[in-house]
Structure formats: C-alpha cells, structure tokens
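Re: manganese (II) ion structure - here you go.
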Amino acid sequence: MEKQLNILPLKDWGLPGNIEPLVIAGPCSAESEEQVLATARLLAASGIRILRAGIWKPRTRPNSFEGVGTVGLQWLKKAKAETGMFTTTEVANRQHVFEALKHGIDILWIGARTTANPFAVQEIADAIKGADVPVLIKNPVNPDVELWLGAIERIYEAGINRIGAIHRGFSTYGKNVYRNPPHWQVPIDLHRRMPEIPLLVDPSHICGNRTMLKDITQKSLDLNFDGLIIEVHHDPDNAWSDAKQQITPAQLSNLLDELVIRKEKTNDAEFLHTIEELRSQIDKFDEELLDILASRMEVAETIGKYKMKNNIKILQPGRWKEILAHTRRMGEARNLSTEFVETVFMAIHQESINKQMKIMSNGKSNE
Ligand code: PEP
Ligand code: MN
C-alpha cells in the first residue's frame, strides 16, 4: 500500500445535500446563459445540489466547439446564486485555475487527457497551491494506475486534502459498444493502494450513449463507488457537444430512482451466517485449487527431469497450443470465459516452464 494520505472522506467535504451517493450533474459544455440556467433550475428542482459544466473543452479535432471560455464562469456563478447549487468545471492549465477560483467555482476537475500529462498536472498543482478547493481527478485516457496515482499525489502535495477520483473509462482503438470502455480493475487497484480516496463514476463518457448509463452507474455502486458525475442538458438532442450521451433532468431523476443502493455491511444474523457459510466454501475450494496446482507442478517437474535426461527442449509449442485449445473448449462447456481460462492457463504454463528451467540449470551446474 502507498503511504497513507490524509485525504478527507466525502462526508467532511462540506458538500450540500445527500452524498450517498454523491451526484454531480450538468451539461457537457456551458453554451449560453439561458442553457446553463434552464438546466440548473430543472436539476435543482429535482434535488441535485452540484452543477457541472465544461467551459474550456478539450476536443479531439480542431475547428469544433472548444468551449465558451471565461464568460461561462459568470453563468455558473449566476446559477449558483439563484439555485444555491455548488458548481464544478474542468481546468487544464494555470490560467483556468486562476479564472475558476476567481469566479468562485466550488470544485475543480482534471480531465482524462490532462491526467495523462504530468507537466500539465504539475502546472495545475502549482497554481492551486494555497487554495482550499476540492479537486476531482479523472483517470488518464490510458489504463495506467501509476499515472493516475501520480496526478493525485501532485495535487495532494499542493496542500489539497479533498481529492476524489473519477473513472471515465479508457480510450480504445476500433469499434466498441462503449465510447471509453470501463476497466473496473484499474479504479479498484487505485482504491486498494489509496483506500482513503472517494471514487466516482462518469457513466456519460464511458457509455457515449444514453442507453447504458444506468447499468454502468449501478455496477459502480455495486463496486462500492461513492457517486457519479453525469452529463445532463435541458435539451440534449441540440447540445453543442456530446449530444448522444446527454439526458434530460427528468431522465436523470428516473435513473436515480431506479438505482439500487446496496449496503456494504449488515448486522442481520441470518445474512451473516449464510455469507460465512458461503465464504468457507470458497476458502475450501481455494485450498483444493492450490493442492491441485502443486500436484500439477510436481508432474511438470518430473517431465522436466525426463526431458533433461533425454536432451529435449523445455518449450514444446505444439503441445502448449493443444493445451490452450483443449482447456478453452473445456472452459466454455463450464461457462468460464475464454479470457479467464487463457489468463489462468498462461500463468500455470509459465510456472511449469519456470520450474523446468530451474531443473535444467541445476542439472547443468551439477555436471
Ligand atoms: C468532460 O467531462 O466534459 C470531459 C471532457 O471528460 P473526459 O476528460 O473524461 O474526456
Ligand atoms: Mn462531454
């Protein structure tokens, strides 16, 4: 585990409203004063207390709408004055930080493309120094947990102790049902190494459409995430950016109503008894698995000794291909995914090779 950071739990961030889960909602981009206010009013009426809107937009290609710039901060300020909502926007450089703080933005967020660039994150960290503002840090565009941790550390070292991490999926080449496929293992690893950091999901940028938002949000809550940041527009079809993935405030209310918030813990005796029983079954299977693996390795070692005696190479690609095809088929018949079966057998095969190599090199040194 990393050195324990003194990051405050969400409940101590001084945020308005219910934080279980924390919900941040608003348009991808601020487009006009009317649009920001219309969306904010509808969201506030349905109980949302934190408004997001991008003012400076990182666009993949030039000559598209790149955000309204500083003038949009006035609109967020107005929305806050009228609805009492907290506001948040993306910052990607020193100037953005100064402008956002000057206009009383309550929470800053760092976008995925920026997190991937340590120079930019350091510039933001230097600009933030001395300001006591919460910062949410999206995962980098590539699934690199070190880069994500590094960005969090840079902001933390600037004296910020209200830091959250946002999983917004990872970029991919080629067709995929998701715009940025989620890779849950990455935020889970991040959280294992920094258990104090709150985790949010950004279903909008993961999905890139409206139909899968609920499933992704539910999945994140089941994985113990603390909340979500989601794109909501009063007229999504006519949004200037990310129109396909934005929903109306009414659709957000439905989505939130349908979410099942499961508890992490319970005192229910019956539940505790059942779970303990099931866990002991798992523990028993794990032990059996290890026994079987140890026996398999013993056979591999015997084969290694036999190969050495007969002067045969360790790696027999034909045999390995056969094992892989065979175990894949057997896995399918048992409802185990090909990816899983391959990963397990690659690791087993590697361990067999390592054991046999050891035998060969010991054999040589004994000669
Ligand atoms: C955004 O939230 O508006 C955004 C640009 O997201 P990301 O940095 O995740 O692409
Ligand atoms: Mn967007």
